[in-house]
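User: Small ask, check this?
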Amino acid sequence: MRSLSLRLYGAITFLAQPLVRRKLKRRAVAEPGYAHAVDERFGHYDDAPVDGAWCWVHAVSLGEARAAGILIAELRRQHPGIPILLTHGTATGREEGAKLLEPGDLQVWQPWDTPGAVARFLDRFSPRIGVLMETEVWPEMVAACSERGIPLVLANARLNEKSLASAERLAWLARPAYSALAAVWAQTEADAHRLVSLGAKVAGVYGNLKFDATPDARQLATAAMFKPQLPRPLVVLASSRDGEEQLLLDVLKRFGATAPVPPPQAGIDSIARQVAAVQWMVVPRHPQRFDEVAALIEANGFSVARRSTAGAPTQSEIWLGDSLGEMALYYGLAEVALLGGSFEPLGGQNLIEAAACGCPVILGPSTFNFAEAADLSVAAGAALRVQGMEQAVRTALQLVADPVRREAMVQSAQAFSSSNRGAAERTAAAVLAIAERAAPPAPDAAPAPEERAEPTLD
C-alpha cells in the first residue's frame, strides 16, 4: 500500500506534465537536443520490446555522463558483454552518453517521475539493476523499483549541506526515497554522514570515480605540440558559469588590458604589462552560452577568437573554448587554470581533470560541490585558494612568472591525481555483486495502479 505522501507526489508530477513539455520546447530553441524523442520522457517508446537483464545507468547531465563512462568501462572490464541501458535528463548528458554506447546497448531519456511513465519504463526495459549517478534520487522511481524487487543504487554519491537542507525540508518524500535505495557508495566521509542522516544505506566510501579518468592522450599530445608555439603563456578560466566571465573581464580592464600598454619604467613591469604578456582563455561550462559569452567579450572591448572557427591559436586578446570534450587540450595548453563555478556561489566545477592533466588550479571561495577534493588538492600543493577574481588573476600572474613554483605544482597535481584512484574498480565490483544476487524481474510484474492509462498531455 503506497503512502499518502507518495500518492500526492504522483498527482503533482502528473499534473506538471504540460509544464514540463513547455519547458522542453523552450530549451530546444537554444539546444535542439531537447526536441529529440520527447515522448520517451513520458514512457512512450516506438521500438519493439527488448530483452531484460539490463544494467541501467542514469547519468542526468554532462558531468554525471563522464563519471558514468568511467564506471561503465570498468563494468565491461569485469563483466565483458554486459548490456547497458543509459538514461539522461539533459541534452549535453545524452550527447556525451552516446559516445559510450556499444552494440547491444540502448539510450533513452529518463522518464518523468509519474507512476505511469515510470511503470512503462520498467515494463519496457526490465533492468536487473539500476545505478543512479551522484545525486539523482526520484521518489516514484525508487518506490517502483522497490516494489518490483529491482535493486536501485546510488554510485559516486555526493550530498552537500545545501542539498541536505533542501532534502530535510521535504523529508516526507526524501527520507523514504533514500532509505529504499539498495546501497549507496559515497565519495567522501562527509557525504556519507549526510546521506546516512536521510536514511540511506551507505555501504562504503569509495572516493570519486572521476579520479579514474584518463585524460585524452591525443589532446595532451596536441597541446604539447602547440604549447611551445604559443606567443604568450596561457591562463584559462575553465568551465566558467554565468557571471564569472564578466568578473574576469572587469579585472582585466581594471588592470589596463584594453588600454595601451605603458613602456617599462626603470625595469619595473606594471600590472598592465603583466596582463598583456598572458594569453587569456575562457571555456564556458554550458554550450548554450558560447554565443552569449563571445558577445560579452566583444562588448567589453576585447577581440575574441573561437576554437570552433579559428582552430589553431590566434593573436586575439581572448580565446573562447567553444567546443565539447576538449578540456584535456585546454588544460594541456594552460600554465594555470582558474576553476569555474568557484567565483560565484555555485560550488565549483570538477578540478580532478585539471589535476590529471598536470595543470595547477586556482580556486575561488565556493567549492562546496567538491569540498573534500578541493581541500585535499590545496593540501597536496596542486591548487591554491583565493578570495575572489582579482586575487586569482594576480596569483595566476605570479605563477606564470615563477616557473619553478609552477613546475612544483604540476608535479603535485599529478601525484594528487594518481593517489586517489580506485573508486571505479570498487564500485563496479559492488554493482555486479548486487546484480548477481538479484532475481530477474518477473515478466508479469504489475505496474503501479495510479495513472496506468494516462493520456499523453500537451
